[in-house]
Design goal:
Layout (H helix, E strand, L loop, with lengths): L1 H38 L8 H29 L1
Helix pairs in contact: 1-2
Length: 77
Amino acid sequence: MKPLKFMFPLFFLIVFSIVSIFLTGFVLYIFGEFFFFFYKGIQMSFSSSIFFLLIKISVSIGSFAGLMLWIATSLKK
């Protein structure tokens, strides 16, 4: 029971960080594409490689951020 008490917040913080970073990156990418399309007239290029790049970035940074948040909350207790 004791390990579950520590593992659930770790899992929650990591997943929350990954999802929030991915959604932020995706929204910024979409707004950037629309901005350049309407302001400069540059064609929009939605590709799966950019989607997978956002996933890789969000998993790596989100895991690190979630782990650091978990350590900070563990030390605070």
